[in-house]
Amino acid sequence: MASHGARGRSGGRPTLEEVAARAGVGRGTVSRVINGSPRVSDATRAAVEAAVAELGYVPNTAARALAANRTDAIALVVPEPETRFFAEPYFSDMLRGVGAALSDTEMQLLLIFAGSDRERQRLAQYLAAHRVDGVLLVSVHADDPLPDMLAQLEIPAVISGPRSAAETLTSVDSDNYGGARQAVEHLLGRGRRTIAHITGRLDVYGAQRRIDGYRDALREAGHAVDELLVEPGDFSEDGGRRAMEALLARRPDLDAVFAASDVTAAGARHVLREAGRRIPDDVALVGYDDSAIARHLDPPLTSVRQPIEEMGRAMIDLLLAEVADRRPAVSRELEPPRRMVLATELVERASS
After folding, report:
1. What is the rounded (10 degree) CA torsion for 143, 145, 148, 149?
2. Which site in 102, 158, 226, 232 is 20 to 30 Å from 335, CA atoms measured?
3. Which domains does the chain have, with CATH numbers?
């Protein structure tokens, strides 16, 4: 009996035609089976799959992508410095979710930083050459030109967190407003009355929604909103330290702090301890994200959990749907952008 290895009749790599001849079908039928088309009978599919296994045929994904005017590549674009990406758990959790969603596809993931003007210019040239099928945008600020550039290039894109209520791109976000309300209502329920808030970057829509939730929770509980208890931060640990120092100088009587991220809460905790404030006896502390940092602080940090990995998976699902939608951009513009908002959950720990 002849032995069939991974070489075709010519001694090279097996071809699509050789698979078709072995299976006794046409070349187009083999292509449909390889691409998962349902327009093939079970018997024919089994014959083609057997021929593929016998010959050791490996599809030429590059050629297939070129023929379909596809690159089989997705770019995850982060308009932040690399140092912030590797310092904050939010980004690694997002990357984990995106990677998990792509693991069952043939898509490659490219991680691109665009935190400086030079990096943005280089990215613009790269995307203008249509080297990716779609783009995921993470941590976008209100004045960032990247979303509009993607729209002009007609590249499918999904954004993590809209830039505003009028966002034109497909977006995936968590319920920032509801999460902030949960945090403040929890602190009020623990008898705290002088509750400060360290914000995130105020050019990020999610940070704005967290302030809204903070203020509305206080108002609905019958408390006046004291703006001296609100201090801008930037989601970083250093920002949390600076903000906490300013708040203690202005309002030394504060008895609780709601921080816009766990990293920010870690910075605030350091300053509170230096000032001799016990957590939670003197000052209760709540963060946001429910990252590994929250579990490892002393005392463990109460935090609002947003499903970051699930957000990453949802972004991929929406983006792949847009990539598959080959309609002209004009017809797509007539439809409202798709928006997905995932629920948050307060995880109570010893800090509050």
Report:
1. 180
2. 102
3. 16-59 (1.10.260.40), 73-174+310-341 (3.40.50.2300), 176-305 (3.40.50.2300)
